[in-house]
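Help! Submission page says 'invalid entity' but I think these are all valid:
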Amino acid sequence: MEKLGQPDLTNEFVELVRKAATDLPADMQKALTRAKGEEEPGSAAEGALNTILENVEMARRHNTPICQDTGTPIFEVHYPLGISTRALAEQIRRAAAIATERSYLRPNAVDSVTGKNSGDNTGVDFPTIHFHEWEQEHIHVELVLKGGGCENVSTQYKLPDARLKAGRDLDGVRRVVLDAVHQAQGKGCAPGVLGVAVGGDRGASYVKSKQQLLRPLDDPNPDPQLAQLEEQLYEESNTLGIGPMGFGGKTTVLGVKVGALHRLPASYFVSIAYMCWANRRASMDVVLNNGGVEVTYA
Amino acid sequence: MPKLTIPIPDEEIRALHVGDTVYLNGIIITGRDAAHKFMVEKFIHSAPPAEEAALYAELKRLLEGGVIYHCGPVVKKHDDGTWTFVAAGPTTSIREEVYQPDVIAHFNLKGVIGKGGMGANTLKACQTQPAVYFHAIGGAASLIAQSVKEVVTVHKLEFGVPEAMWVIRVEDFPVVVTMDSHGVSIHDQVEAASEVKLKELLAV
């Protein structure tokens, strides 16, 4: 039962999922194209980037998933006062099932106790949805499809870390992030994007690190110290020589995004969300007017 | 670019070296976490149970000189009951490291396709068999699906679509040899070199 003024956005959520799964954002494609030009002609690294770019074009043309691991769908929903988040959550779950039926998503939700795949991308807390009430009058939804291979190389450090000589400061953050890139090698489908969060408790820190992945690659950090850290980590990560797919080469990461949270005096966590080159994100704005909706996708 | 036809003879495997790009042609089988655990527990560490005898015989036939692919595809089922691969890139191989040497030896596999490389035990198995590790491009799922010309059949669909064992016919499936039968692994080389660089950056 929809209440008066509650929109049904099921179809719009399906379209958002389709777009994210099949259409790589322009900034990611541009960065991959630039990276290809920087690798040695004829190298395995250049070959990998060629294949990646061909695949991006093909997925868009055929309307098929860029990667078969369509990941955990993570929705960040900003909504005005008066909208039912319960209704929106139901619509998102319905949309996930429809998108699975249409082969935009692989059935990816597995019951951790029985091992049974639900078959439609719904399950306990699946998809992931975060709601944020805001002062604006429209609904803004961001979606990232976070693959499993890169999730497995994502990690969290507790500072100080004696092995890496990492203290509780931004140089300590730098040290553990570089270690994480080294540990990941090509396993997270390099060249990746790093979402980094400093502070928070363990849970908040991981959530914040993933939210960094929603930022466009050219989005400048408003904090000058974090902006400088992002730049330095980008440069230094790319001197490690891991390269596309871990074949060796000049491009190991395509971007680094750092956010910070307040923390307890006792704790200093650094979380690193490694995102594969297939950084599949999409967003939509929904303007509500007299029972109708106007939707734009980006 | 060289093409290989499955089953692949030993001399063609021995001729491959890390860094070689090749195109695979023939019948391959997908298998990832559940399939590897199943094969090792049911067929290798114990006598095949009666209800799986037919599957065991088919795997023995298809994997002799054959290739297994670490992949959990996106598929489409048609009204007539046939299947198509929609997206089919590789999954991370290292999770199969505990099973892979046994599977290579038992079935006389000549190749494993995946991503991210594998460990010392698989590298050793590649030398002994001989066999190689073929690295597919992670995430290139739509493109790789185009080289899957036919879904011949599927086994163990009860494991779920990603974990089932899909028997597929591929044409010109592009891969790079990153672990060869001569004991060389690109993954070991890159990791060692990046560790040197990391120590410089951290001055530890």
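Support: the input was valid. A stray whitespace character was the problem, and the output above is from the cleaned input. Residues 186-202 of chain B form the longest helix (17 residues).
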